[in-house]
């Protein structure tokens, strides 16, 4: 089975092609024609042009947007690396359907549909193979059943997942990106919910970048100083014992990752496969983006960085991706909150792009820089 899944992923990745540079260039040309100082809306201009390149058209439209929140549990929480337990993952995931979590409230303000996905929560429920895929459209505000397993194994005791499970979770992300594109969505925002997923993210980041664990690790959703030291030690020991292969991103994901990270990696790859822009959220989401870039370098051209997480490695991961964030608000919440916040800023950029007067409209000569 693992071989079949790996072959399917390879086949999908082979279909990735570069963005449409002409559409991006035409879009920047329109920006340059607007009656304002050249390039003065900075990343708003660049990201609208980037989206044009991805959509293949300078008539950029972001009317339909979706936030996909990958929800999963992490066996490593047995080691006391979090303040709360996996019951909180379940409560917040359920509340994503009801509309009462932070991100769902923000998403409503940003006119964004929310698709929570159970990709590996510890709750009871059928596993992925046992559930027939929904016919027709995916429904927002409904917890999508895509459970790969009831939480990962504790990576302090052995690999978090099997390669087959990792591939399944990545393919779930790709499948969802493809279906939402087919449903007419113009952009995807990534989000997650999974107690313990800053531990897995720090472990993946340390392994992928060969960086010291203490520089990659923060307090997540809230830990004492003592708890943080324990978290660092658990990650250090796991990396020493499991020795994930730096040259094999899938091996890192298998040994110290999580199903939520794998699912988001799939969303980023799906963005490149189905040509739809995908917003990176905070630390956890950016680690998934980095895995995606390592699996398929072109996928980076389909990603947009929203904000810098307050977690210590937030900026470093974005630097590694070579992407600049639109916002710096000291947020460290996850769920997709930063990605949705950035959508509102992108909207403003897009309104200017479509509505603002050009130098021609005003019968004014376009000035040239002196
Ligand atoms: C009530 C609550 C709501 C959340 N919403 C997002 N997270 C965030 O915190 C978790 C990661 O932090 P750690 O690794 O320390 O567990 C993730 O679920 C992330 O989305 C939350 C955490 C809590 C407690
Ligand atoms: O930046 C994030 O994604 C983050 C940081 C801390 C807790 N949850 C999420």
Describe the structure.
The radius of gyration is 20 Å and the shape is globular. Helices cover 49% and strands 8% of the residues. Strands 3-2-1-4-5-6 form a six-stranded parallel beta sheet, sandwiched between helices. The protein has 370 residues and is of the alpha/beta class. It has one domain: Nicotinate-nucleotide-dimethylbenzimidazole phosphoribosyltransferase (CobT), large domain (Rossmann fold). Alpha-ribazole-5'-phosphate binds next to helix 4, strand 4 and helix 7. The site of nicotinic acid (NIO) has 12 residues, from helix 12.
Shape: globular
Number of domains: 1
Structural class, from helix and strand content?
A: alpha/beta
Whole-number radius of gyration?
A: 20 Å
Judging by the overall fold, what is the CATH architecture? Answer: 3-Layer(aba) Sandwich
Order of helices and strands: HHHEHHEEHEHHHHHEHEHH
Please name the CATH topology.
Rossmann fold
Question: How far is the N terminus from the C terminus?
Answer: 63 Å
Name the poorly predicted regions: none
- Which superfamily, in CATH terms, is the homologous superfamily? Nicotinate-nucleotide-dimethylbenzimidazole phosphoribosyltransferase (CobT), large domain
CATH class bucket: Alpha Beta
Beta strand %: 5-15%
Strand order across the biggest sheet?
3-2-1-4-5-6
Query: How many alpha or pi helices?
Result: 14
This entry's quaternary arrangement is: single chain
